[in-house]
Amino acid sequence: MIKIAYIFPGQGAQYIGMGEDFYQEYTQSREVFKQADELLHFDLTQLIFKGPFEELTKTAYCQMAIFTVSIACLRAFETEFPDITPSFTAGLSLGEYTALVAAGALTFEQGLKLVNIRGQYMEKASQLNPGGMVSVIGMPFEEVEKIAQEAGAQIANLNCPGQVVVSGDSATLEKVKEKAHNQGAKKTISLHVGGAFHSSFMEPARQELVKALEQIEVRAPNVPVVSNVSATFGHSPQEIRENLARQVVSKTLWESSVRLMSSQGVKEFVEIGPGKVLKGLLRKIDPGLKVYNVENTKGLRMLKEELSS
After folding, report:
1. Is 198 in the active site?
2. What would the pLDDT profile of 222-279 be if each residue is shown by its tens digit?
3. In terms of domains, do 115 and 149 share one?
4. Which member of 93, 135, 167, 250 is catalytic?
5. The CATH number of the domain where 43 resides is what?
6. Which one of 135, 167, 198, 199 is the catalytic residue?
7. 87 is catalytic
8. Which one of 174, 226, 293, 307 has the largest count of C-beta atoms within 10 Å of its C-beta?
9. Domain region containing 304
10. Torsion 60-148-13-34 (CA) sign
């Protein structure tokens, strides 16, 4: 039997109108948007479909939006493929919350509540400790790590071979960019994010998440979920709580997470949610992996045709 993993995107995948076609065509998806608006006492659906983009990209809204759209996409996928059960689920940073809902460890309501708190307090932490993130392309991890240490920055994401993201304040990141260029990096990219995520700058957000997670019932997942902070399977509710709290201040081990699933026999992945960022990362991690995209109804129809042929 073919092993399939569901993977879910993180912050940065957002765009105006994401998920709208699922809203129009699938009752199950429409219910997700409706439930989100009711739980939040706020018209998140209007913001997602109509913008403005500047508001949608704010950390406090963006995370809830991507989470909600990803679950709406998942519900449409489950409607069309009721007999498919993933062997594993995983998500990039924020996407781990979606992965936990997909695996039955959290309900949509619980996940949305946590993501709302996460986004709000990450934004507050960014205001207390201003900073940003830079992606260093075409340089081995060990060299980037040395540059980061010398500059006073912190490793934030290990996404795929040749791509390392660092976090820090603006002056520190300028040092990183200069040193990386001088030492042979192909290029550096300043990311359009609201803060120095996955670093000690987010410690105030971690503390608030710990409190929130204590109030949430977390169940053992129905299928293994890969943790961002350890690139291992977190099985127990307490492990899941600890990993989610650590995640905002720890580096994201996405490449190792994908290799772990691949080592367990997974060669096919379904990227569920807005964008195709994860498909691009997986191609660089292992070109032999097959990745399907379900971000709109067109992608879902293409997947149905391919799997039925």
Report:
1. yes
2. 999 999 999 999 779 999 999 999 999 999 999 999 999 999 999 999 999 999 999 9
3. no
4. 93
5. 3.40.366.10
6. 198
7. no
8. 226
9. 4-127+199-308
10. negative
